[in-house]
User: Fold these one by one.
Assistant:
Number 1:
Amino acid sequence: MKKRVGVGIIGSGRIGRIHAENLCRHISGGHVVGIADAVPEFAEQCAEACGILQVFPDHQALLGHPAIDAVIICSSTDTHAAMICDAAAAGKHIFCEKPVALDIQAIDKALEAVAAAGVRLQVGFQRRFDSSFRRAYEAISAGEIGDCHILRITSRDPQPPPIEYIRKSGGIFLDMTIHDFDMARFLVQDEVEEIQAFGDVLIDPAIGDAGDNDTAVCVLKFRRGAFGIIDNSRKSAYGYDQRVEVFGSRGMISVGNKVPNDAVVSDDRGVHHPLPLHFFLERYQDAYREEMQSFLDAVLCDKEPEVTGLDGRAPVLMAHAAMRSLAEKRPVRLSEIAF
Amino acid sequence: MKKRVGVGIIGSGRIGRIHAENLCRHISGGHVVGIADAVPEFAEQCAEACGILQVFPDHQALLGHPAIDAVIICSSTDTHAAMICDAAAAGKHIFCEKPVALDIQAIDKALEAVAAAGVRLQVGFQRRFDSSFRRAYEAISAGEIGDCHILRITSRDPQPPPIEYIRKSGGIFLDMTIHDFDMARFLVQDEVEEIQAFGDVLIDPAIGDAGDNDTAVCVLKFRRGAFGIIDNSRKSAYGYDQRVEVFGSRGMISVGNKVPNDAVVSDDRGVHHPLPLHFFLERYQDAYREEMQSFLDAVLCDKEPEVTGLDGRAPVLMAHAAMRSLAEKRPVRLSEIAF
Amino acid sequence: MKKRVGVGIIGSGRIGRIHAENLCRHISGGHVVGIADAVPEFAEQCAEACGILQVFPDHQALLGHPAIDAVIICSSTDTHAAMICDAAAAGKHIFCEKPVALDIQAIDKALEAVAAAGVRLQVGFQRRFDSSFRRAYEAISAGEIGDCHILRITSRDPQPPPIEYIRKSGGIFLDMTIHDFDMARFLVQDEVEEIQAFGDVLIDPAIGDAGDNDTAVCVLKFRRGAFGIIDNSRKSAYGYDQRVEVFGSRGMISVGNKVPNDAVVSDDRGVHHPLPLHFFLERYQDAYREEMQSFLDAVLCDKEPEVTGLDGRAPVLMAHAAMRSLAEKRPVRLSEIAF
Amino acid sequence: MKKRVGVGIIGSGRIGRIHAENLCRHISGGHVVGIADAVPEFAEQCAEACGILQVFPDHQALLGHPAIDAVIICSSTDTHAAMICDAAAAGKHIFCEKPVALDIQAIDKALEAVAAAGVRLQVGFQRRFDSSFRRAYEAISAGEIGDCHILRITSRDPQPPPIEYIRKSGGIFLDMTIHDFDMARFLVQDEVEEIQAFGDVLIDPAIGDAGDNDTAVCVLKFRRGAFGIIDNSRKSAYGYDQRVEVFGSRGMISVGNKVPNDAVVSDDRGVHHPLPLHFFLERYQDAYREEMQSFLDAVLCDKEPEVTGLDGRAPVLMAHAAMRSLAEKRPVRLSEIAF
C-alpha cells in the first residue's frame, strides 16, 4: 500500500476550490501534485491560494504527469464523461463531481472506459458522508427500524440560482433532485422501479419561462415495496432545508437540519432556535472532507469506493424518468428509460 | 339567545360515549336530555355511566322530544345520512360524526334536507380543534408563512383495526385518509383540484386479502398551486404519528406529536424523549371537547358551525378521487367524480 | 367502601373556585354538598357558577353537616391550622391548601389534632401530580438514573404579585420556594439536612422595601449526600418557568416546560417554538384535578394520601432554615429550627 | 502587518499535539518553525506526525530562534509562569495554556514580565471560542436578554481522571471549575465579588482519599448583582455535559450540548436522540482552532488578544476563594484572597 496518493485537480471553480483546500489542508493520505483549468488563470489563483506547486496548461498535460495517481474532476458537467474516459485511458483513479453526465449513453461509455482501465471511480455525492445521513444509513443497515416502508426527503434551497444557470442545468430533477434520488437509494438500500413526478412554478415566473419548475414532488416506488417521497423548492425563507425521514416496520429515523450553534433564546415573543446552516457549502463542509478522505482511502487500500459509477448512473436515470413522468402525467418505470 | 342547548345523543358506541361524557361533565352550555341506540342496553349503560336521565327506545322517539334542540349522531356510518334527514325534518340542529356517508349522492341529499330545514349541521372532524393544528391554521390565516407551496401530512396509526372492521370501512382513503383530506383543506384554505394516490400492502397480507391497502401516499394539487402530500400507515411501531408541515413563500409551520409528559431521560445509551400519546382518544381528548363546545356555541349564537356540511362532503369526494386514481394509476380531477 | 365522598368546600377564592369546578365537573367519586366562605356572597357566587346547592353561613355550620365526609380548606393561610383542628374535631377528612401554617408550632398542633381524630389529611402540593414531575418521580424510584447526586430546580413566575400580597406572604421562601422545597423532597426521596440561601432585589425595589427579595438561590444538602439547587425569580420575561433536572449516578432526568401547542414556525429570523403555558393555573390545570382525584381515592379506599401532613410540615421547616441562612450568611441545619 | 506569524511550540503532550496539528493544517496566518519538549523524543514524534521541520533541544533554544515571533506554551502547569517570563524576556508573543499558575503570586509575576516586555499574552480558555457560547456572549452583549440575573453552568465530565492526576491537579476548583469560572465572567461580563462553594465525594472514595471532591456546587455573586450557579461532577453516565443558561430581565439564553449528528430514532421504547460529543477534544475541536486563529490574528494585527492575562488570573483567584469557602463553610469575598 502506498503511503500517499498523488492527486491532480481538474477544474478550479467553486467546488474545485473546496476539494483543493480540503486536499491541501484538512485531509491526510493525499498530496496535490498540480491543477488544471480550462481558464488557466483560475487554476493559478487556486494554486496560489492553496499552495499547489504546479499548474498544468490543460487536463491532458496533468494526466500525463507520472506522480499523479488520481484525478479530481470538477470541470463543467458537459466535460465530465470525456474527462473520465481520458483519465481512465491514462490509468488514473477518478473522483468525479456529480452528475457524471446528463445522458445515460455518455455515462455508460464513461463507465465502460473505467472498467476497461481497471481504475477506481467515485462520484461526488457528498451527502452520503454527512454524519447525520451516515448515522441513518447505519441504523437502517443494522435493522433498527426494520423494513423500510416510507421515505420522506425534504430538500429546499435558500435561493434559486441565476436564470442563466437554470437554463443550462438540465432542469430541477437533474440539477437538484439528483442528490435526493441518490439519498433515496443510499438510505433505502434498494433500487427504484417507478417514479411519478409533479412540478410547478410557484416562486419565480422567470424559472417557468426558462422551461423549468421551481417546486417539485416525486413519488418513488422501490422494488421491495417502500414508497419514497421527495419534495423540493428552490427557495426556502428559513434557509437550506435538508431533512430525511425513514419509516419502517420497527421504527423511524429522522434527520433534522444542522445548525450553527446550540444556543436558544427565550423572550416575550417565543423560544427561538437558530436557523439551519446557510447552504450546502456550510451544511456539507465536513461531508466534503469525509468523501475525499474516503476516496483517498479507497485508492490507498485498493478497494471499491463508497459511491460507485453505478451510483452515479442511477440518479440520472431517475431524473429522466421523473422528466418523462412530468411530461406525460403518469408513473414511469425506470426500465422505460434504460436498463 | 338560549342559555343552554337541549341535546339528544344517537349512538352510544366508543365515540358516542366520549361525546356523552364530554357533554355531561366537561362542556358548558349544553344539557343532555336523553340518549338512544340501536341496541337499547348500550344506551342504558351509557346513560347510567354518565348520569343521563332518559333513554329513548329509538332515534325517532328522541327526535320527537320537545326539549331536544340538537342531536349528536354517533350511530354507524351507514345510518348517518338518513339520521341527518330525519333530524332535519324534526327541526333539530345536528352534529354528525364523519363521514356523513360513503357516497356523494347520499351526502348531497342529507345536505339538501339540512338546508331545507334551516338547521345547523357540524361534521365531526375533531382534529381541526386540536390546539396545535388550530395554531397552524391561525398562523397561515395571518400570513405568517406567506402563500402555501407544499403541505405534508403524516398520519400513522399504532395498530391496524380488526380485519372485520377493514372490510366494512370503505377502504383506507374513506376510513383513515379522510381526516387528512380534511386537514389539508383546513390548513391550505383552498380546494383540491386533482389527486394522485399510491397504495400497497406492506404490513399485513390479510389487509390485502380484504381488498384494502395498509400503506398509502396521496399527492394533492390545490387550485392556487400548492402541493399536498399525505402519507399513511396502519401500523407505526412508535405509536400514533400525527404531524403536519406547511411550507410557504415566507416560512414554514410544523406541528409535532403530542406527548404525555415533558420528561427526558439521558443515560449511557442516549437521550430519550417520550413516545406520542397512544392513539386518537388520547391525542384528541381536548379536541373532542373543543369541537363539541364549538357546536353548542354555534347553536346558542345561531351562527354557522366551524365545520360545515360542505366540509363533510369534500373529503369524501377526495377519497373517491384517490380510489379511482389508485385503480387507474393516473391523476384524477375531483370534477371527474362530482361537482 | 363508599361510592362517593360528600365534600364541603371552605373558601371560595381563586384556588377554592378551581377545586369547586374540578369537584363539580371533572372528577369522579365526589359530591359537593356545600360551600362556605368568610364572605358569604363569594360563596354564593361560586355555588351558582358551579351548581353547588348549599351555601353555609360559616365553616362551623358546614362542618356540622352529616353528609359531608371531607372538607377542602382553601381559606386564607392564617386560618388553615385552626380549620384543620376544627375539621378533625368534627371527624372530617381534610384536604388543605399549602402552607398548612407559617409557623411550625401551629402545624404541629394541627397534625396532632388530625392524628388524634384519625382522619386523613392531604396537603395541596399539586405539582407532585403534574404528569412530567410524576414521570420523573417514577423514573427515579425505578432506579433509571441511579443514586441522586445533583438536583436542579428552576422556578420563575411571569410577574411578581402585588406588593400588598408580598407584605403578607411570609417572604419568597414561604410563599414561592415552598413548592420547590416540596418538589426537592419528592424527587430525591430523601430529607434535607442543611440549607444555604441567597437572595437579592434585582427586579423591583418596592419588593425590597417590603422586606422581601425577588431573586433567590438555595443550595440544599440531603442526608444521603445529594445536592439540591433551587433558583427563583419573581419575573420571567418568557413566562412561567418550571423546570427540574435530577442528575444521578446512572443518568439524568430533565423536565421541561409545558407548552400550549406543538407548532413551530420557521422564518427568516429563526425557528420559533411556543412560550410555556402562562402561569400555574394553566401549567397545573391537570395536576389540580389529579391531586383532588387522588384525595378522593384515598378517602374512598381508606388509605394514606399521597401528600401527608408531614409533607406539609417539612417545606415550612426548610423555608425557615432558608430565612435564617440568608440572615446569618451561613449554612443552617434543619435541626437548628425544629425536630 | 506581517503576513505570517512564526510559531514555536513548547510542549508536545495531548494539548500541545492538538495545537500543533491545528497550526500545521487547519489554521491560516501561522507557520510552525519548531517544537521543544522536556522529553525530546515526544517533540520528535509530534514533529514527524505534523510535518514540523525543526525540533529544539529545549525551550531556551526555541526562544532564541529569530524566525519565531510567538510561542505556544503547552508544557506542564508548574512550568507555565516561568515559561511566560522567559518568552517575554525573549520578546516573543505568548499563547499559554490554562492555568497560568496555581498561585496568584506566580501569575502576577508572569503578567508583570509580559507587561514589561510589551508582548501579547493569550490564555487558553478555548470554551470562549465555541460557537454556542460565543453566540450567547454576543446575545448578552447586544442586550437580547437584558440585565443578567441568574447564570447556571453545568459542567460534568464523562469519567474522572486517574487518581495520580487528581493528586497533582490542585483540586476540582483549580482543575475543572476554573473553566466554568472563566465562562461565568465571560458571559455575565462582570466581576465576581463573593463565592460560596460546596463539595462532596459521591462517585469514588479514592478521590476523597486523594483529598479532593468529585461533585461540587459554587454560588457566585457578581458586582452588579447577578447570581451564578455552577455544578460539577467528575462522572456523567450520558457523557460530557457542558451547558449554560443565562437568565436576564428581558429573557434567557440557553446553550445545550453539542451532538455528533442530528438523527433521531423512534421505536417502541421512545424517541432517542444522540448523546453529546464524548469529551472536550470532540466538543471543543472547532473552538481550539478558533482560539488559535484568534491568537494569530491578534499578533498579526497588533491588537489585544480576546483572552488576556487578567482573564487568566481571575479564575485562579476564584478557585482559591472557592477552596477557602469550602474549608470554612462560609461565603468568601475575592478581596480576601488578593486584590
Note: The interface with chain C takes residues 237-239, 266-275 of chain A (CB under 8 Å).
Number 2:
Amino acid sequence: MTRTVTSFDGKDGPSPFGEFFADAEMVEATGNRAFVAAMLVFEADLARAQASCGLISHEIGEAIAACCNPDAIDRHELQRRATLAGNPAIPLVQLLTETVRRKSPEAAPFVHFGATSQDVIDTAFGAMAASARAIIIARSQTIMSTLAGLADTHRASVMPGRTLLQHALPISFGLKAANWLGSLLLPFQRLRGTTLPGGQLGGACGTLAALGTDAPAVRRALVGNALPWHTNRAGFQALSADLGVLTAALGKIGHDVSLLMQTEVAEVIEGAAPGKGGSSTLPHKRNPVHAVAITAAAIRMPGLVATMLSAGLHEHERAVGGWHAEWETLRDLLRIAGAATFHAERLLAGLEIDTARMRANLDLTSGLVMAERVAFALAEPLGRSAAKTLVEAACREAIAGKRALRAVLADKRLPAAIDLDALFDPAGYLGESDPIISETLARWQALQR
Amino acid sequence: MTRTVTSFDGKDGPSPFGEFFADAEMVEATGNRAFVAAMLVFEADLARAQASCGLISHEIGEAIAACCNPDAIDRHELQRRATLAGNPAIPLVQLLTETVRRKSPEAAPFVHFGATSQDVIDTAFGAMAASARAIIIARSQTIMSTLAGLADTHRASVMPGRTLLQHALPISFGLKAANWLGSLLLPFQRLRGTTLPGGQLGGACGTLAALGTDAPAVRRALVGNALPWHTNRAGFQALSADLGVLTAALGKIGHDVSLLMQTEVAEVIEGAAPGKGGSSTLPHKRNPVHAVAITAAAIRMPGLVATMLSAGLHEHERAVGGWHAEWETLRDLLRIAGAATFHAERLLAGLEIDTARMRANLDLTSGLVMAERVAFALAEPLGRSAAKTLVEAACREAIAGKRALRAVLADKRLPAAIDLDALFDPAGYLGESDPIISETLARWQALQR
Amino acid sequence: MTRTVTSFDGKDGPSPFGEFFADAEMVEATGNRAFVAAMLVFEADLARAQASCGLISHEIGEAIAACCNPDAIDRHELQRRATLAGNPAIPLVQLLTETVRRKSPEAAPFVHFGATSQDVIDTAFGAMAASARAIIIARSQTIMSTLAGLADTHRASVMPGRTLLQHALPISFGLKAANWLGSLLLPFQRLRGTTLPGGQLGGACGTLAALGTDAPAVRRALVGNALPWHTNRAGFQALSADLGVLTAALGKIGHDVSLLMQTEVAEVIEGAAPGKGGSSTLPHKRNPVHAVAITAAAIRMPGLVATMLSAGLHEHERAVGGWHAEWETLRDLLRIAGAATFHAERLLAGLEIDTARMRANLDLTSGLVMAERVAFALAEPLGRSAAKTLVEAACREAIAGKRALRAVLADKRLPAAIDLDALFDPAGYLGESDPIISETLARWQALQR
Amino acid sequence: MTRTVTSFDGKDGPSPFGEFFADAEMVEATGNRAFVAAMLVFEADLARAQASCGLISHEIGEAIAACCNPDAIDRHELQRRATLAGNPAIPLVQLLTETVRRKSPEAAPFVHFGATSQDVIDTAFGAMAASARAIIIARSQTIMSTLAGLADTHRASVMPGRTLLQHALPISFGLKAANWLGSLLLPFQRLRGTTLPGGQLGGACGTLAALGTDAPAVRRALVGNALPWHTNRAGFQALSADLGVLTAALGKIGHDVSLLMQTEVAEVIEGAAPGKGGSSTLPHKRNPVHAVAITAAAIRMPGLVATMLSAGLHEHERAVGGWHAEWETLRDLLRIAGAATFHAERLLAGLEIDTARMRANLDLTSGLVMAERVAFALAEPLGRSAAKTLVEAACREAIAGKRALRAVLADKRLPAAIDLDALFDPAGYLGESDPIISETLARWQALQR
C-alpha cells in the first residue's frame, strides 16, 4: 500500500512568493541546507569534545569531524529516510556513519556516540535560532535608528492625531515615529536579552548515562554549563513570543503606513522603485508593498506563537508529537519575523513624507480639532463649565452651518485675552510631544550602550 | 541599502523532515510548480473564454493559451520580481506577456486582459485546494474503511475503557475504533460537502468593468455562476476549519495509539518496517512514528486555522495584508491535513492489535472495574442504597487488603441469585457497544452512498 | 495549606464592559443560571425517560423531575464543591439527590441513574449552544435583510472602490453592501445547517452498560438516535468554526465602517444615540461604537476557535483536560459571536450614508480613477498598446502638473468618437455591479426559503 | 428596535465551574469590582497629583478623591451605560462627576481633568495585572520550593525514563522533579523581571496637551517616568506571553502526573480529600482533579496569547477594536495562569509517590531497559561493534522467548569482568542525574537571592 516516497522539495523550485515571507538571508540561515549543516556541526563538535577528554582518540575524533560536511551527505536520501525514521537525526547519523566507515572504519562506531536524536536536532535549531536572532537584532537596530531619525527630524511636522480613526488633536509626525520606536524598545530588549537554548546534550533519557564517567567532561566541552532541556521548551517558546511581540510592533507601523497612504490621507507614501507596487491593471496606482508584507507577517505570527505554546505539553522524557510540531513552526516564526524586519527596514528607509499634506489635513475639521484647546483657554476667564458649554455650542453651530469653528467663535464676544490666531495654531498645542520624543530617543540610546 | 535579492528556495534542496508534514503527493498538488501551473491555467482559460465570446480573436486566444506552460516561465526570475511587485501574479503576467510577445506580438496586449492579480492568485489557490481536498477525501475514505473493518472485527475484543486515564469499565476495541470512525463522520461530510471557492474573476475592483459588455459572457465561460469573492474569504476559512476539525479527529486517534503503545499498556503497536521507528541509541525500542506525525499535525493546525480567521478583516475591495497572510497559511493547512491523512492511512493499515493483552489489562484492577456492575446486580435483591454500601465497602476492603474484589465478595453472604462468575466476566458488561458499532457503521455506509 | 474556597462570582457584581461582548439575551441563554437549569433539565428528562420505559416507577420519575428546579439548588454550594469534585455535575447530582431525599427518600437512589458527569454537562452545553445559535441565526437574518435593503437601495450610489486602501475604480455602495451580504451567505448556511451535538447519554464509558437491557429504550427516549459522543468533539468544533467564520465576515463590515467613518472619508457614520460614542474629553467627536465592538469580537474569535481544536486530543474514553478546556471557551465563543450580531444589527439599522460625499470623494484623484476606462475606450481606435501608452503618459502629466486627467486628455488630439464627458462619468463604469447585486440578493432569497 | 439593556452579570450568580479556572483570590484581584475600584484609584490619584502641583486646589483634589469609592458608584448603572458609551471609563466619569457634584459642585468640572478613557482603563488593567502577577509569583515560588524538595528527596527513587511513551532508560523521580523545576526557571525569571506597563497618562492623543504647562508635573506625580503607551501594547503582550510560557511548563507537570496516575503506571497519585476526584458513578475511581485543571489551563492559554498579539495592530493614536479585544482577554489570561498555579500548588503539596511501584515498573521490560548499559560495558572488552551485535541479538532472543534479558545474557559466554548483577541495577545507571538535580537546585537558589 505504501507508495514509494520520492524526493520533491529540491525539485519543486523557487517560491513564487519571492522574499515576501522569507528573505534570502534568513533562508541561508534557516534553510534545509543550513539545518543539515548545523546538525553536522553538532556531530563534529561532539566527536571533538569526546576526543578532548580522552573518551575517543584524537584520530577518531578528527576522522568523524572531517566527514561532517553537508555537501558530502546525500540530502535526498536523508529526506527519503526521514519519514519512517521519525526524525532527521536518525538518517543523518546513518549516512554520516556510512561516510565515516568508508574513510575510517574504526571511527564509524563512535559517530553520535552517547547522544540522542533530540540532542542533534535541538542543538541545530538552537544554532539556527541564534543566527536568525542576530540578523533580526541587527535589522531592528537599523529600523530603530531610522525611526529615531524620523522622530527627531519631524518634531515640528504637525499632523492630525487620530483616535478611533477620527481626528482628535494635533500631534507631530515626530511623535508618531517616536511612538513606533517606543513600542519596539521592550521587545527588542527582551529579544536581545533572553537566554537562547544552548547546545543540547542529554543522551537517550536526559541522564547522559551512556557517556559514563566521561559525561561531565564531554558535557562541559560541548555545551558548557547547559543542562539537558529535552522537555524544557521555555527557551524556544520565549524566543517565539519575543519575535511575536516584536512583529506585532512592526505590524502596527506597517498598518499605520497603509492608513497614511490612503488616497484620502496621502501623508506618507512608500518609496518608489522599478517593478514595485504597481497594479496589474490600473496605471495610476502606487500600492503599498513593504507595509503590506509587514502587516501580513504580523497577522501570521500569533497563530504560530500559539502553536509553540500548545506544543509544550511534552510527555515524560520525550514527547509524542509536541516536539515534532515545533520544528517547522519555529523555522516559520524565525523567517516571518525576519521578513517583518526585512520589509520594515526597506519601508522606513524609503518613506516619503508629505508634511504639507499633514498640515493641510488638520484643517479638514475646520478647526474642530482645536476645540479642546479653546475650551481650556476659555476656562480661565469663564470657568470650566461655562467655557465647555460655549465651545460645544460653537462646535454644533460650526457643524450645522458648515463653517469654520474659528469663524463661529470670532462672531462671539470673547474675553479680550483670547487670541484666536494663537489658539488655532496646531503647532502650539502639541503638549508634551517634544519631551516625549526626547525621552524616547534617550531610552533608545541607553539600550544601545 | 537594498541587498540584491537572490533566488534561494530552488537551491535550498530537499527537506530534512521528509514527508512528515508534506508528502510527495500533496507537494505535487500544492507545491511551487503546481501553483505557477495553476496561475497559468487561469490565464489560458481566460484567453479562451474571451475568444469564445468574441472579445478577442480565436487566434489570439490560442496564442496566449499556448504559452501558458510552467516550464516555459523562468520561475527564478518570477521569484526575484515577486517581492517588490507585491504578489506573484504581476511578474507572472509580465513574464507570460514577454513570452507571448516573442511568438505573437499582436496577442501580447491581451494577456490577462480585464483581470486583476487577485483573480489569478485566488483561482490558483482554489484549484490547489480542490486537488488537495480530493486527495484528503480519498485518503479519509481509506482510513474510514479501515476503521470500519477494525470496529466490526473487534466487537468482542474486550479491553479496559479509560476515563481520565483510569480504568473505568470494560469496552471492546471495536467500540474504540467505531468511536474513532464516528468522530470522522461529521468533518468528512462537511469537508466533502462544502462549496469550495470557484474561479475568481472580478477585475480591479470586483466589477469586471474593464470587460465592458462582454463581462457576463466571459464570466460565465470562465467561472460559471461564481460571483467575485475578493473580500469574501468564507470559502477558504470554512475549508480550513473543516480540515482543522478533521485533523483534530485524526489527532485523537494518533494520541490514543501512542497511549496504547505505552510499555505499560502495550495493547496495540505500529506495524514494523525497515528503517522505521528505531532509536538512535536504544536497541530495544519500537517508537511510534505515524502516530507521532498525526499528533504533531493536530497540534499545528489550530494556530493556522486561527490565522485564516484573523486574516479575514479585509479592507474595502482588497486587503492590505489580510489576503497576503492567507497564501502560505492555506498551503500549510492543506499539506498538514494531508500529512495527517497520509500517516493515519499507514498507521491503521499496519496496526498490530494484541487482544490477549487487552483482556489481561482488564485484570489490573483486580476486578474493581466490574464494581459498578455488581452494585447494579445487587440493587435488585438488596435495594440500591444497601447494594452501593456493600460494594463500596468491598472495594475498600479489596484495595486495603490487596485482594481481588471477586474474592472479597465471595467471602460475603450474597443473595443466591448472584452469579459472581457471570458478573465478573467483562464481555458480559459491554452494554450497548455492539449496537453503537453497528449504527456507526451504518452511518458510514450511508455517507458513502 | 488549602485556603477555604469562598464563593465570589455571584458577589462580584455587574460587568463594567456592559454588553460589549455578552449581551443580556445571550447571557440569559448561556449564563451560570442557564447552565445549571440546563443540567437539571437533563436530570429531569433522564428520570422521565426511565419512567417511560419502566426502568423506574412513574412516581419516582416525577418525584425527581419535580426537584429539578434551578432555584431550589444552592448554587453557591455547588460552586464551592465543584472545584475539588472536578466538574459541576458531581455536586449538582449531590445537591439534587439531597433535595430529592428530603421529599421522596425512595427516589433519591435513582437520581442520575446510569448517567455520567459528561452526559449531563455535554447535554447542557448542547442545549445552550442550540439556544445561542437560534438567537444568532435570527439576528443574522435581520442583519442580512438590512444589508439586502442597502444593496438594493444603493445600486446607483457611486463611490470609490479601494484596493490596498487606494482608490481603484468606481463601485456603488450597493455593491459594497451586497459583498458584505455575500460573505455572510456561506457561514449563515453552514451555521444553520450544521448538526449540533444532540443530547449525550453514554454512561461511565460510553457503553450505557449500567442501564442494562433498558439502555436502548432509555437512550431512544432521551436522546433519540444520538450516539454517545464523549470523545467526539467535532460537533462543538464545527459550531465554533462556523461562528468564527460568521464573526470574521461581520468583522469585515465593522472594519469597513470604521474606515468609511474616518474624518477624511466620512462616507458613512454610525447612527447617533444619547450616551453613544462620545469622547471623554473631545466635544466634537462621534466615535464608532458598534463597529468597534464587532471588530473586537472578530479579533477575539480566532484564538478561541483554535482552543476548541487544540482541546480535541481527548485521551481514550474521557479526556484529562481537553474536555474541561472546552467549557468556558465554548461559552465565550457563543457570547462573542452573539455580541458581533448584536452590534452588527444595531450598526446597520442606524447607519447614516452620505452619498454626496461618496460621489465627491471619487474626484479626489482628479479623474485618475477613470484612467482604466479611458485606456480601454481608446484601445478600439488606437490599438491596445498605443492606448495604454497614451493614457499612462497623460496620467503622469496630470500627476506632475496637478491637473485633472480629463483636462490633460482634452488638450490632446483624440479620435472623434471619444466622448470624454461620458467616459469620466463614474456611474457609467460600474461594470457588473448591478447584476452582481441582483444575483447576491437572489441567493439570499433562496437561502430563506 | 434596540431592546432595553438590562443588567445581568450581577444577578447571574455563582459560576458552576467553581475555582477551576478562576480562584477566589484571583477574582478578588481581577474581578468586576476590582476593576471599578482600580479605575477609581486612577481618578483619585489624578486629582491628588493635580492638586500637588497646584493645577487644582487641594480642596478640590480631596473632594474628588473622597468620592472615589467603588461602593458609592452604581455599578449596574455603569454596566447599562457602558455598551453605548463604547468603554467603561466614560460612564464611570459621568457617575463619579454626578457624585462629586452632589457633594462639591465646584469640584465636578475637574473630575478626570485632562485624561482620556484609555488612561483610566489601561492604568486599571496595569494595576490588576500587577496584583495578579504578585499572586502568581508567590504561588510559583511555593510550587518551585515543593519541586526542589521533591527533586532532592527522590534522587535515588529510580523509575523508568520514558521517551515517546516507551521505557527508555532508568531515571530517578528526583530528576523528573528537577526537570519540572528547570522548566519553570526561565518563565519565572522573565515574569518576575519584565517591566509591567506603569500608569497611563496621555490625554486624548498621547500629548497631554490639555494639561498645558502643568503636564510634566502632573505626569511625574501620577505615573513617574512612564511615557504614554496608548498604542504600545508590548507590555501587556510580553506579560501574556510570560504567563503563557509559565502555564505551558505547569501544564507539562499536570500532563505528566495524569500519565503517571494511569491505572497501568500508578507511580504517583493526587492526594485525596473529601469531595475530591470521585466519579459520579464508579465507586473505585480516584480521578486526577488538579492535574486536569492545570492541563486544561495550559490548553486554553495559547489561543489567548495569540489574541493579545493579534490585537496589537492598533490604528494611529487609538485603535478601533484592537484595544477593546484586549480587555477580557487579558483578564482571562491572568485568571487562567493564576488557576494553573492554584492547582499546581495543591497538586504538588499533596502528591503521593509510590517509589516501590516505580522500581517495579522498571522490570516491565524484563531488563531491556538496561540493554544500552550492557552494550557499552561490553564495548570495552569486545569492541563497540561486536558488543552492539551481541546485545541486539540477546534483546531479540529475550523478546522472542519472553525471557529476561539478564537470563539470556547469563547463558552466554561473557568476559569475566562483566558483572551482570551490577549492570542490571538501574540505580547504577542514572548517569548525571544527581549533578543535574544539584545544578538545577542551585539555579533555583540563585534565582531567589
Note: Chain C touches chain A at residues 160, 162-169, 258-259, 261-265, 279, 281-288, 292, 302-303, 306, 310, 361, 364-365, 368-369, 371-372, 375, 388, 391-392, 395, 399 (CB under 8 Å).
